[in-house]
Amino acid sequence: MIENRYYVYAHIDADGEIVYVGKGSYDRAWNIKGRDTPHQEWMMATLPNLAITFLKESMIEKEAFWAENEFIKQYNPKFNNSLSRYGTTNSNYRHGNRVGVKRNPKFKPDGTPNPEYNPNLRQGNSARPIKCVTTGIEYPSAKEAAMVLSIDPSGITKALKGKVKSTMGFVFEYVI
User: Fold this and answer.
1) pTM higher than 0.85 for the full model?
2) What tens digit of pLDDT does each residue of 151-160 get?
3) Pick from 3, 113, 126: nearest CA to 64
4) Regarding the domain with residue range 1-123, which homologous superfamily does it belong to in the CATH classification?
């Protein structure tokens, strides 16, 4: 059963401006852990009068992710600087470490095509260029190499990490 426990929230400063938009569940809106230092310092200075508003509630995680993205684009909050989004409009963005989130999905959660999908954009958080030493061909990521060579991407990852010497007869290394 899918739980609709996720929400999108906003931190609001004394002037009524939205300074941060995030998605969460349980007590995430009030939790200081995992935030950038300036945001943490602002939260500590604002306590106990931290103003939080819930922009949207009762969603599954994918819906909350998309809603968070749209609210960030709409409000351009100053503390949202660690997320990489599809069609970045906030000049504060840099690549972050959002684990388990596909940054460039082909389809939205409702099944409609994502107009911002870019097939040339590398996927995932750790996509790095690799080289197949056996063939001498470079690939933008292990996933791309796996698709072209018709082999399991986890085997390529194991070879890149040195857990195995080769996979399906291919030797791989990271491009430096």
Assistant:
1) no
2) 888 899 999 9
3) 3
4) GIY-YIG endonuclease (3.40.1440.10)
